[in-house]
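Researcher: Here's a chain I'd like modeled. Treat it as a single chain, no partners, no ligands.
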Amino acid sequence: MKKIAAVVVFVVLILLAVWKFRYIGAGSEPAVSHSTASASTGINSESSHPGNASPLLPNRVVSARSANYSTATNLKAYIDSLKAEGAAEKDIQLANAKALDECGMLSFRPNFIAENVKYLKHLAETGGAPDVRLVEKYAAAFSQRCSNFPETRNQTALREQYYAQAAIAGSVEAKARQLVRGETMDGLSSTKQPLAPDVMISEVFQILGSGDAGAIFELSQMFGANSGFTGAAAGSFKTEAAWKLVACDMGLDCSENGPLLRQTCFQGFMFCSSGSLRENMRKSAFSPDDFQQIQILEEMIYKGLNTGGLNPGNTSSLLN
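Model: Modeled as a single isolated chain. C-alpha cells:
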C-alpha cells in the first residue's frame, strides 16, 4: 500500500509542478550540513534536514529574487516592486507566472479559499491526515499573498506566455519547465516546437550545471519511472523523489511555511501534516526501507552534482 501511495503522491506532485506551485526560494531555517550516506543509515537524521540550502554549495544557491518571492506577503505588491526597481525581465515574468499559478484560481472561483478549508477540515473530521492548524495557517497565507491580485481571463494562455517570456529572457527555472513539457516556445507566440532528443539532453545537463534549485525540482520529473535517461540517478519513483530532495538541499524552500508545501496541501490535498517536504514524504508517502533508499540516492546525486559524477560522457556517470 505504501508503494501505491507513493505513486499517487508523485502523480499529484507532477500535476502541481505543471501549475508551478512550488515555490521556491531559500528556506527560512538555518542551513545544515550533510553527513555521509551509508546503506544502514541513509544520509541524515530528520532533525538535521529541514529542507534548506546546504553550506556545501556557497555558489549554488537560489537567487535573492527567488527567496523574496517565497517570503513575499503580497504577490501583487511584490511584482509591482520588481517593476519599480527595474528588475530583470526574467525575474518579472517568472514572478508573474508563479503568481498566476498561486492566485489565478480566485479569478474563476472567488470562494476557493473558504471552499478548500471546508473540504480539508472535513477530511480531518472523518479521519484524514490534514492538520487543521496548518490548514488555517495556509488559508491565511493565501488570503494575504493573493489580496488585490487582478482578475485574469484566459489564465492558462497568459501563464504559459509568462513562462515562455521568462525562459527566453534567461530564467533557468522557466527553461527547465519547458524542457519537462518537451517543448520550447517560438518567440513570444504560443506555437509549440518539440525539441530534438540530443538538444534536450544537452539542455538538461546545462541546467543541472547551473545548480538552480527551482530548475532541479522541475527536472526531477524527467528522472522518474518513465525516464528517458539511464544510470543510477534515473528510472524509478525513488530517483524522482531523491531529485526533489536534492532541490531542497540546494536551496528550494521545502519548509512547512514555503509555497511548495502550502500549495501541495491547499490545492492538491496532499502533505497537510506539519514539517518539511522531507518529513511529509517520510511520514506518509514511503515505507521506511524505501525512504532510506531515497535518502541514499539523494546523497549520491547531490555529490554527483558537485564532483562531475553526472557529466555526460563520464563512463561512471550517474545519469546518461
